[in-house]
């Protein structure tokens, strides 16, 4: 029957041979306190609501995988969506993914709404990449990339040099304070060594650019032209239609990471260390003016001989420097007159004075979920971007049972952004590192097969010095089949 169904779909397509058709159906139910625990709602591509105590989601996914031209060209199409219900029983229909992709070897072109992270971390346990994590819903994008490391074929490299990279253009949500805002993203990596023993380095450059809006009563309208796109590509200056204040900065909201790491294998243990140095503007991109702000990580994968424990991860996320606070200083000019000028600083990660909803999409932070915001729609604002966090994770296996555990301790300091979760009354109190509010978050997830089904039970909770205790649990039942 499966072969007949596959043949029927291949004949319908008329251009390809169907290799696989994958269908997945899933139901997730969540019960929580008024504050949904961090690791119940974060890094799930925005699929769990943050403002309801009871919710249920029925999700379905279909993936078509086919090849042409004797298997040289691969065509993938995927779509998924969900229907969610809260305690008020108001249905919420959402589209999770909808894209098509064409692959030739490691080269891929794809377009639509697809799930992707940028930055080298061990996703099952990580707190999330500083660049693009799995925290927000996918935005519509077109992308050209290498899907994996490409080992340079030149004989003199002896297979020890590999590269990967990609480039994207995307569209932020409409009516996002500034209309018609675009995403520019690109990344390039170099790896020296083998898969098991290597060092790597890369740059992930991201930008919000373009759009129509106003700033301090001045209207701006930045059209899509090659010149404007190129200035964004190189983090350049003047573009057509920009606000006057932007002529003194790189056009658009630029951010990203310098991504550095290494892997060594000793007696079957794979040890990976990585550092994502975060930058928020061209100054911290070029000269690292923001200290060591970023994500430090260590991941250990154990050999099969070690019982129970499969992966251990520890991360440190620091964003307290931010190039220092912005200050006004009095300068004496050559003609002995004086001028009051601002020196750069106060990068205010993920926030931008022009694109006020910042590095977010549909009300969720695009980078690490340890940085948070408040509000919705064009009123969304980053309010918690100076943090010092310790994150620990473990992945265990006992037969067919998989256990995932997370623990996160976060110190939060007054933010440099427009709004601050941690209150302050004076400038000195804002900069006083004794002025912080902490939170502790824990998580335990247990998954196992039950006949044709996969069952996932999740339990999470924590304490927040601002909001108090939180707790929650989730039960997910999923079924997947491939034709």
- What does the main sheet amount to? 18 strands, antiparallel, barrel
Question: What ranges have pLDDT less than 50 throughout 5 or more consecutive residues?
Answer: 4-14
User: Strand portion, in percent?
Assistant: over 45%
The separation of the N and C termini measures 9 Å
Number of helices: 5
Helix content: under 10%
Q: What best-fitting shape do the alpha-carbon axes yield?
A: globular
Query: What is the gyration radius calculated from CA atoms?
Result: 24 Å
Q: Could you report the average pLDDT, rounded to the nearest whole number?
A: 90
What's the total count of β strands? 27
Structural class: mainly beta
Summary keywords:
483 residues; 18-stranded antiparallel barrel; globular; mainly beta; 7% helix; two-stranded antiparallel sheet
Give me a quick take on this structure.
The protein is mostly beta strands and 483 residues long. Helix content is 7%, strand content 52%.
